[in-house]
Amino acid sequence: MDTMRDRFAPVVSRLLDEDPRVAVVLAEIGKDGFAEARRRHPDRVINVGIREQLLVGAGAGLALTGMRPVVHTFASFLVERPFEQVKLDLGHQDVGAVLVSAAASFDWPAGGYTHMAPGDVALLDTLDGWTVHVPGHPDEAETLLRHAVAAGDDKVYVRLSVQSNAQARPVDGERFTTVREGRSGVVVAVGPMLDAVLDTTEGLDVTVLYATTVRPFDAAALRRATRTAGADVVLVEPYLAGTSTAAANDALSDVPHRVMGLGVGRAELRRYGTVAEHTAAHGLDARSLRERISAFLGGGPGSERA
């Protein structure tokens, strides 16, 4: 199976052909995938070199002229390094762009901590008006990329990963979907965490919600699920643990509830290792997830009353 990033260049190249507003801005990374598109549209495929602040600034400049820029590089170079430009050139100037990242939290461990970005979604949460898509399969990535480019002049972040679920599910760029129904709690699986959550909760009487668009947070879906499954909620996110805890608490602010956020820990893991080893070290492997989810939903240690 191809990866989400394998889909990125072909999908956006087709969008370049279909929509004269679309432009692509790169910073060396990913340029080979757009070689043919650049021959067809030399004025709309722009490589700024290894200059990530300029990457975002150029995208904002294109947006000011009425273009729909798609801006791409690794997540750590797209959100963290040029964060001032994301905040000011896009946010303060009130223009939109589609930021498409690669490498996720730790997709390329050999790249070291400079190429890891578990805090990207939490960082964007400090800004207003961002839509955040976290696909869990290449087919979903293609759908959400098209949604993002078609989203008027909105500010959209699409988080691509080599981690993937085995099968795609219908996604609409807005709502959580119910994958399994139960009566003893709700587990929200974000993007590529769905398969692990389904394996982990096999035999448990829980509702599983699948989230590929996490901002805006689908408070209505969570509230509906808790009416029959109870108000114990576990969030399983492929980025910084607890990123969506506040959003879940806000959704359930008028009812007694408990929320546990599982995801990537704050501690820096200094050995390169493999993706699977990083997953296990952060407690996101099937065994660890089952222990933590079962303990929480059973009222064991680690629960937090809100």
Question: What labels describe this entry?
Answer:
alpha/beta, Rossmann fold, 2 domains, seven-stranded mixed sheet, 12 helices, 37% helix, 20% strand, THDP-binding, Transketolase
What does this structure look like?
With 306 residues, the protein is α/β, with parallel strands linked by helices. Helices cover 37% and strands 20% of the residues. It has helices at 4-18, 35-40, 52-64, 75-80, 83-92, 120-124, 138-150, 194-200, 219-229, 245-251, 275-281, 286-297, and strands at residues 22-26, 45-47, 68-74, 98-102, 130-133, 155-159, 177-180, 186-190, 207-211, 213-215, 232-240, 258-264. The strands form 2 sheets. The chain has a 7-stranded mixed beta sheet with strand order 2-1-3-4-6-5-10, with helices on both faces. The chain has a 5-stranded mixed beta sheet with strand order 7-9-8-11-12, sandwiched between helices. Strand 8 (186-190), helix 8 and strand 9 form a beta-alpha-beta unit. The N and C termini lie far apart (42 Å). GO terms for molecular function: magnesium ion binding.
